[in-house]
Specification:
heterodimer, A: 256 residues, mainly alpha, Ferritin, 11 helices, 0% strand, B: 162 residues, alpha/beta, GMP Synthetase, Chain A, domain 3, 2 domains, 3-stranded mixed β-sheet, elongated
């Protein structure tokens, strides 16, 4: 099928939101480096940060091939309202319970998204999606291990995890904010769409959490926190970008 | 493969992974294309073990330097996701080389990986399977950390990746 301008716009929008999610969550994960509650966790979040940074770069490269600016320019010179990340990923790392719950919600969505994209008609995206799947597997395994472990830990652990699940859930649903190109993406075989992704995600995370002993809010009664995909962000994103780009801005023309 | 491409392959068999110096990049399974269409010309395609691997650029440079040294002067080295690396692509020789470096080699898999496969990795020091996974995230993206209950040593494994 021949792509129209709207198909290409939809594809770029899709690539931007995935890449921006990965870049921003990668940065947040890296904030645990040196601070993790135990050494192994410190290394786990640092490793996942590295994976996500690498994955975001591969997606920015595809955008570059589609005519967008080079990855460094795209990553380091945009303001918060030019970012398409979900508000979920930009929130500060908070306490470990929140970081684990965000990690669980985000990585399960990511795993399903790239599973779906392993069948996309867009060849370069299909190739990276197949690659990312194997890497993300270790992220979801890590998240599942801790969500399960802490549900079976002390009463305090279980209560804190439950409360983090309740508070994070509306932000997690915000990941699936539909774009204005959903119909075009589905029609062209580029992506199955946010609604299908959300449904598969719910079918995955709800039974898992319930099997660990948590209760999950009813998605149909929760208002998702949208905005991120359209450039509307929390007060936390711009300070993150200022910190992330600090060195780059000293000398944008520097050879690295 | 034409004779020049064979020669390129032999050159690459001597280029070792910068982080695991006992294994060549050919045995690691990351050399996915070798093309030489004329005298002194070489095209090599590499695929990353992990998308976030910081050694990628270093490996591209090592390949270029080795080819230049072997007399090639029209060299192009590229990293591409066209062929996706998975741990089954490591050669038999490569698996032995990993063990020589003290890393438990990744078990062969059928594309479906669960944490269980990491729970009883054979210890590279005493070969016991009485081992425990400490963490699936090690000092580099491709390694996990384990403990051998038999010889009481901590060891690292090269992770199976699908």
């Amino acid at each position: 099928m021949e792509f129209t301008e709207k198909h290409v716009m939809g594809l770029k929008d899709l690539l931007y939101k995935m890449a921006d999610d990965l870049l921003i969550l990668g940065h947040r994960n890296s904030e645990w480096t040196g601070l993790g509650p135990i050494l192994e966790e410190d290394i786990a979040f640092s490793s996942m940060a590295q994976d996500k940074m690498g994955q975001s770069l591969a997606l920015y490269e595809i955008l570059h091939e589609l005519g967008e600016s080079d990855p460094d320019t795209v990553a380091f010179t945009r303001n918060d309202h030019q970012f398409h990340c979900s508000q979920l990923v930009e929130l500060p790392i908070g306490e470990y319970d929140f970081s684990l719950v965000r990690h669980f919600f985000y990585d399960h969505a990511d795993a399903i998204r790239f599973d779906m994209l392993a069948d996309t008609v867009v060849e370069p995206l299909q190739m990276v999606a197949k690659k990312f799947r194997g890497e993300i597997k270790y992220h979801t395994m890590h998240a599942n291990t801790w969500l399960k472990q802490l549900a079976q830990g002390s009463e305090e652990a279980r209560l804190r995890m439950q409360s983090a699940i309740n508070e994070t859930f509306p932000f997690a649903l915000g990941m699936f904010e539909p774009s204005e190109y959903e119909a075009e993406l589905i029609e062209a075989g580029i992506f199955q769409g946010e609604e299908a992704l959300k449904n598969q995600w719910l079918e995955t995370v709800v039974p898992l959490l319930e099997s660990y002993g948590y209760t999950v809010p009813d998605a149909s009664t929760v208002t998702p926190i949208f905005g991120g995909r359209k450039g509307v962000h929390t007060e936390y994103l711009q300070p993150l970008l200022d910190e992330m780009t600090e060195v780059f801005r000293i000398d944008p023309a520097a050879e690295w | 493969m034409n004779p020049r491409e064979q020669q390129i392959k032999s050159v690459l068999e001597l280029v070792n992974d910068p982080e695991i110096p006992t294994i060549s990049i050919v045995d690691l399974g990351i050399v996915t294309k070798i093309i030489s269409e004329k005298e002194n010309q070489a095209y090599v395609q590499l695929t990353p073990t992990f998308s976030g691997c910081p050694a990628l650029k270093i490996m591209e440079n090592l390949v270029s330097a080795a080819l230049l040294n072997a007399g090639f002067n029209e060299i192009k080295v590229e990293t591409s996701f066209e062929t996706q690396w998975n741990s089954n692509l490591i050669s038999e020789k490569g698996l032995i080389a990993l063990k020589k470096h003290g890393l438990a080699p990744p078990p062969k898999h059928d594309g479906y990986i669960e944490l269980d496969v990491l729970s009883d990795m054979p210890c590279p020091l005493c070969n016991s399977r009485n081992t425990t996974l400490q963490t699936p995230f090690g000092p580099t993206l491709c390694r996990s950390i384990h403990y051998c209950n038999n010889c009481s040593n901590a060891f690292e494994a090269f992770k199976p990746v699908s």
